[in-house]
Design a protein that fits this description.
Number of domains: 3
Number of helices: 19
Oligomer: single chain
Helix content: 25-40%
Low-confidence stretches: none
Structural class: alpha/beta
CATH topology of the largest domain: Glutamine Phosphoribosylpyrophosphate, subunit 1, domain 1
Strand order of the largest sheet: 3-2-4-1-10-9-11-14
Distance between the termini: 30 Å
Largest sheet: 8 strands, antiparallel
Bound molecules: fructose -6-phosphate
């Protein structure tokens, strides 16, 4: 997830673009860059780190003035957060500049093709190929929108692209597939941006771009206006939908959501889909982002140990079920803060999987270092490209959740789960415990999950109403079995950290061994019910558990699969989730618990983005 701005008009493009990037910096802050059309050429500047670094560089070396420009603030995916990988990317002649948000899945083959034609590519990004392809398609055609259409037809994956060409000084073009792009239309000026926050200070009149469309915004010198033309990738004119933005600037940054957490919960379908992008190679094999472990060593792994903290630890607990089921390798899951102090048994045949959104959590980093000292290999699952944990690991799988601004983890958790499933499949593939078609079957099931999460999110008003009705409750318990048990732990953690309420998660089977003593009249108990298909024994047992607590006065809130009528008689409230394969069920059952905790926190007057006493990245042990 990156932030993109394009501008054509009569103001200083540099100032408009920089102001837009400031409003989009929440989308990524690994690097920033700008390109302005001036003096018949392109003047560009880019810098790793936050936008302020670029602004300082521009004070030292100002760009010439121009009224057409583009800019980018990056959340690194392909290639670390360096100056060279920062956008915009230019072709070898420096005549075209492009910025990109998303992942171009077939970039490796396009890169090889360009190299064979004599292009010199200088970054590690997937984006750079687009600059070179655009330059080729523009030459002899002199129509940037047409060139963009031709290039887009060759790209696989998800992308928003915005580009300028030195020989088309009054034009900015953009394109989108599965990634956001909106057009702002002002008096004699137009804007392209990842979201309206970038241009709301200039205009509230906007145009929504559809899927697989290319837009050209052109300054019309004679009439003093701007033209906006939208087509599909084949050049057929598209209907455009105009709308008026009535958010204020702060709401616009959160996409109109009440908080970053609301926004991040809503972004989960996209985050899940993005994390799956580009994982299947040309021969149908799974691909990690960085792999420095020889295949022979992976085949020899005899133990997997997942280390993580908090929410990431809960993702690890779920990973255990998939890893053991799909690979038949024993898997331990350990709190990173406890790991090295108990002198764990590790050797060269142990694979340690470190899960971390930030990539900077000190407990997880120390566990990783300890594992490497013992000769074990470490595979990182991380959301932050270039952070310490992936840098110090032997293999990395990046989640593509985009920046998570709210302190409580939501979309990072779902993408960590997707990544854990992919690692389990990868190990299964490497060791031959999973056939290629079985791997692809699970990947297809995972691809359906984004739609399932979207359906869950579309029907959350009853959950919110229920949460508001419980604002005065003192304690909420969460129960689950099998993969639903870590979901119960995660539901309780979300409620503690956001609503500051006493909440506990239990394995439902443990209830009778003690915790059932907590149950009293009116106590809200959330129960995550396994599918009645597949694990019917567990399902029947948990239905009995619900009856036991209900008989003791609990108010039962049941998360169950659509069509599971057996839960209805013992539930005070049922939250239905779509049918999913048993192991993947946490991807849908966690979502109502996030919404529940968030709404309860709001109802109690709490600040959901920055809960008290917490920090987003815990860099002390
Ligand atoms: C809870 C939460 C924390 C983090 C934990 C690990 O909502 O966000 O429990 O999951 O601090 O952080 P990372 O994943 O950055 O290592």
């Amino acid at each position: 997830m990156c932030g993109i701005v394009g501008y054509v008009g009569s103001q200083s493009a540099l100032e408009v673009v920089l102001a837009g990037l400031r409003r989009l910096e929440y989308r990524g802050y690994d690097s920033a860059g700008v390109a302005v059309l001036a003096d018949g050429g392109i003047a560009a500047a880019k810098k790793s780190g936050k936008l302020v670094n670029l602004e300082k560089a521009l004070v030292d070396r100002p760009l010439p003035a121009g009224a057409t420009g583009i800019g980018h603030t990056r959340w690194a995916t392909h290639g670390g957060p360096t100056d060279a990988n920062a956008h915009p990317h230019l072709d070898n002649a420096g005549r075209v500049a492009v910025v990109h948000n998303g992942i171009i899945e077939n970039f490796a083959e396009l890169r090889a093709e360009l190299a064979a034609r004599g292009h010199a590519l200088t970054s590690e990004t997937d984006t750079e190929v687009v600059a070179h392809l655009l330059a080729e398609e523009f030459s002899g055609r002199a129509d940037l929108a047409a060139a963009m259409r031709l290039v887009c037809r060759r790209l696989k994956g998800a992308f928003t692209l915005v580009a300028v060409h030195a020989d088309a000084p009054d034009v900015v073009v953009g394109a989108r597939r599965n990634s956001p792009l909106v057009v702002g239309v002002g008096e004699g000026e137009a804007f392209l941006a990842s979201d309206v926050a970038a241009f709301i200070a200039h205009t509230r009149s906007a145009v929504e771009l559809g899927q697989d469309q290319v837009v050209e915004v052109r300054r019309d010198g004679a009439a003093g206006g701007v033209g906006v033309a939208v087509t599909d990738f084949d050049g057929r004119p598209a209907d455009v939908r105009h709308f008026r933005v009535d958010w204020d600037a702060a709401a616009a940054e959160k996409g109109g959501h009440a908080s970053f957490m609301h926004k991040e919960i809503a972004e989960q379908p996209r985050a899940v889909a993005d994390t799956l992008l580009g994982r299947i190679g040309a021969d149908g094999e799974l691909i990690l982002d960085e792999l420095r472990i020889p295949a022979a060593e992976l085949r020899e792994v005899d133990k997997v140990v997942v280390v993580a903290c908090g929410t990431a630890f809960h993702a690890g607990l779920i990973a255990k079920y998939a890893i053991e089921h799909w690979t038949r390798i024993p898997c331990e899951v350990e709190l990173a803060s406890e790991f090295r102090y108990r002198d764990p048994i590790l050797d060269a045949r142990s694979l340690v999987v470190a899960v971390s959104q930030s990539g900077e959590t000190m407990d997880t980093l120390m566990a990783l270092r300890h594992a490497r000292e013992q000769g074990s290999r470490v595979l990182a699952i991380c959301n932050t490209n270039g952070s310490t944990i992936p840098r110090e690991s032997d293999a990395v799988l990046y989640t593509h959740a985009g920046p998570e601004v709210a302190v409580a983890s939501t979309k990072a958790f779902l993408t960590q789960l997707v990544a854990c499933y992919l690692v389990a499949l990868y190990l299964g593939q490497a060791r031959g415990t999973k056939w290629g078609d079985e791997v692809l079957g699970v990947v297809r099931d995972l691809a359906d999950i984004a739609g399932a999460v979207e359906r869950v999110l579309a029907d959350m008003e009853p959950v919110r109403a229920l949460a508001r009705s419980l604002a005065g409750a003192g304690t909420v318990l969460f129960l689950g079995r099998h993969v639903g048990y870590p979901v119960a732990l995660e539901g309780a953690l979300k409620l503690k950290e956001l609503a500051y309420m006493h909440a506990e998660g239990f394995a439902a089977g443990e209830l009778k061994h003690g915790p059932i003593a907590l149950v009293e009249e009116g106590l809200p108990v959330v129960v995550v019910v396994p599918s009645p298909r597949g694990r019917s024994v567990l399902h029947d047992k948990i239905v009995s558990n619900i009856q036991e607590i209900r008989a003791r006065g609990a108010r039962t809130i049941v998360i169950a699969e659509e069509g599971d009528e057996a839960v209805v008689p013992c539930a005070d409230h049922v939250v239905w989730v779509p049918v999913t394969p048993t192991l993947l069920q946490p991807l849908v059952t966690t979502v109502p618990l996030q919404v529940f905790a968030c709404e309860l926190a709001v109802a109690r007057g709490n600040e959901v983005d920055q809960p008290r006493n917490l920090a987003k990245s815990v860099t002390v042990e």
